Every structure is written in structure tokens, then in C-alpha cells.
């Protein structure tokens, strides 16, 4: 039996026990535990979808940060070629070291989110398709373009 089948079997078993739980055939502790398990089995898909969305946002942030740092470094190199602006170019280059630290931290968070998403996937859940990000969820992802209608609606 795979994890999805196990989760489905647990969910079905708990639902089949609901009438008996309501009639008081189990202790309060047993009922509380079974209700909690039943509720949690419903929540895994939503949690997984949110973890996957967060991971996508982190990936985008990493790319945008890296692109911005590379652009600044390119400008700094151009400035360093001219004696009059050499110091400014050097200061910009030094300031761009933030990207490495930010990148390392974001990659660690991304790794953690992947670990949790993988764990939930092993529990037999699949991403929820009912929770779709909206325009108010923040910036979109590379390659995803919003319609002019959506942009006009957002701008009010």
C-alpha cells in the first residue's frame, strides 16, 4: 500500500467511525484524537500547495537578487576603469557582497521548504488546485504574464 492509499484508508476508517464516536462508544481522549487525525488529513493538501508556492517565490527572489547584483557589478566595473570614478565603482562592488549572503540564506529556507513538501508528499498528499494565487499575492513568476484586465482591476 502506497502512502496515498494509507492516508485514504485512514481517512475512510475515521469517517466510518464517526457515528460510533458521536454515540459515545469511545473515550473522550480517543474521540479527540480521531477527530484531530481526520481534520489533519484534510489539511495536508493545502499546506503542501502553500509550501510549493513559497518555494517558487524564494526561487524568484534568488534569481532577481542575483540579476540585480550582476547588473550593479557590471556598472561598478565600468566605473573602475575611469580614474575619476574608480572609488565609486569599488564601493559599489563591495556593497554587492550582500547577494552572496542573502542567496545562501534563501537557499537554506528553500531547502527546508522542499524538505517539508517532500515529507507531505510522502504522506500521500497532492497539491491543492483550489488555492490559486491572486494578484494581491505579490509579484508574479518569470514567464507568467497577467492580463491587462487583471492589471486594470488591481489598479482600480
Please characterize this protein's 3D structure.
It is built from five helices and no strands. The chain is 74% helix and 0% strand. The chain is elongated, with a radius of gyration of 25 Å. By secondary structure, it is mainly α. It has helices spanning 3-22, 28-80, 86-95, 98-122, 148-155.
Helix amount: over 70%
Low-confidence segments, ≥5 residues, pLDDT <50?
Answer: 127-136
Number of extended strands = 0
**Roughly what fraction of the amino acids lie in strands?**
under 5%
Mean pLDDT, nearest integer?
A: 75
Q: Enumerate how many helices there are, as a single number.
A: 5
Shape: elongated
Q: How many distinct folded domains?
A: 1
Most strands sheet: none
What pattern of helices and strands is seen along the backbone?
A: HHHHH
Distance between the termini: 52 Å
SS-based structural class?
mainly alpha
Rg, Cα atoms, Å: 25 Å
Structure summary:
The chain is mainly alpha-helical.
Task: Furnish the topology, listing elements before pairings.
Layout: H1 3-22, H2 28-80, H3 86-95, H4 98-122, H5 148-155
Helix pairs in contact: 1-2, 2-3, 2-4
Name the descriptors.
156 residues; mainly alpha
Amino acid at each position: 500500500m502506497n502512502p496515498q492509499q494509507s492516508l485514504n484508508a485512514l481517512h475512510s476508517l475515521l469517517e466510518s467511525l464517526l457515528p460510533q464516536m458521536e454515540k459515545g462508544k469511545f473515550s473522550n481522549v480517543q474521540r479527540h484524537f480521531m477527530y484531530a487525525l481526520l481534520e489533519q488529513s484534510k489539511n495536508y493538501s493545502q499546506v503542501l500547495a502553500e509550501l510549493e508556492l513559497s518555494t517558487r517565490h524564494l526561487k524568484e527572489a534568488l534569481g532577481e537578487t542575483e540579476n540585480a547584483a550582476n547588473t550593479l557589478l557590471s556598472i561598478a566595473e565600468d566605473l573602475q576603469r575611469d580614474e575619476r570614478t574608480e572609488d565609486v565603482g569599488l564601493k559599489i562592488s563591495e556593497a554587492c557582497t550582500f547577494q552572496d549572503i542573502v542567496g545562501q540564506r534563501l537557499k537554506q529556507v528553500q531547502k527546508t521548504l522542499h524538505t517539508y513538501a517532500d515529507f507531505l508528499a510522502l504522506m500521500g498528499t497532492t497539491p491543492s488546485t483550489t488555492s490559486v494565487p491572486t494578484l494581491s499575492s505579490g509579484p508574479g513568476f518569470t514567464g507568467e504574464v497577467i492580463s491587462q484586465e487583471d492589471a486594470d482591476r488591481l489598479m482600480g
